[in-house]
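Below is just one:
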Amino acid sequence: MTAPLLAYFARHKILSSALAGLVIILIGARLYLPYYLRDYINDEIRKLENYDGQVERVSVSLWRGAYQIHGMNIRKVSGGLDEPFVAARTIDLALDWGSLVRGRIVAEIDIYEIAFNVAQNQTGEGAGWLGFINVISPLSVNRLTVHGGRIAYLDYTADPNIDLFIEDIVLSMTNIRNVREEGSKLPSRLDAFGTSVGGGDVRLAGNLNIIKEVPDFDIALELQDADLTAFNDYAREFAAIDFSKGRVGIYMELAAADGHVVGYVKPVATDLALVDLDQDKNPFNIIWEALVSVFMELFQNQEKDQFALRVPLEGNLNDPEQDGWAAFWSIFKNAFGQAFTKQEDGTIEFNDAYLEALEERQEKRLKREGKDPDETEPLPETSST
């Protein structure tokens, strides 16, 4: 065998060995990757302030550019609640191939069977969630879909315990990173459905801009035909009353721009009746429930057999002001005028909040400049698109 031929076979053998070694390394890395991701995510969970928990396992789908987080469970360290703050059966994070065609590298998330449990001492505030979300999804998220979920407000300090919830949640939020409609103030679409305590149908719909530090939005929420007696634990704790029967609907419209919110909430109750007063041994409760019963009977719309009010909301998004007098007078409007409809009013638009926010900023600027805001020209109307 000639020297050049020997050299050829030697090089070929070295190359084959190198390729075989590379294949073995890649296979090993692929096999180890789910364990590495699981441990990395669990380390990040432990970094959350006052929270702890873990994910059970992680699986990887390289052909989809995706991985799945299974059995996530995060609890508050000293929350006093048995339930986790957030738990999810499966979280699927994948590359959004449709947006990639448009030149944007973003992700899409599908969450299966998620549960949130909120209480006064378990709200998730200040835990550094943004950093954690950036860990589990290194790419910006452009689409979020929830396939089955539950959100609950729990209070174990009350007697009996309070458990208000919405379950069977299906939620879709699209164009979160504004891959499309780049000129729109509210580029993202939100739609959600669920079932409340008392069997009411819940619908949430609207548009928003969630990528702002303080999100802008224009949303409407409806809770239809829930059994009012299912809210008795809450009504007993905070209003000292019990319902023996009744149906309730809650209708809300909210719009916010630059942290300024406008809107209303409108509860409408029908076929109301309080519990038999003889069942309560506390004389103060008997007097109070008697007064409430008489008030509701006098100021309900007799034709529709409904008691309702409308509470206007306006101000800072974190703590909006409630117009108590307007809410009080709305009781009389429903009782002695035209009965309130069991649907949203359609009277709130994003432009309302947008103009209020502009006027608020102009007022602050004029005060800084030492000018009187009342002597300036009003702002022109601006399109909300």
Q: What stands out?
A: The CA atoms of residues 71 and 89 lie 5 Å apart. The chain is about 30% helix and 35% strand.
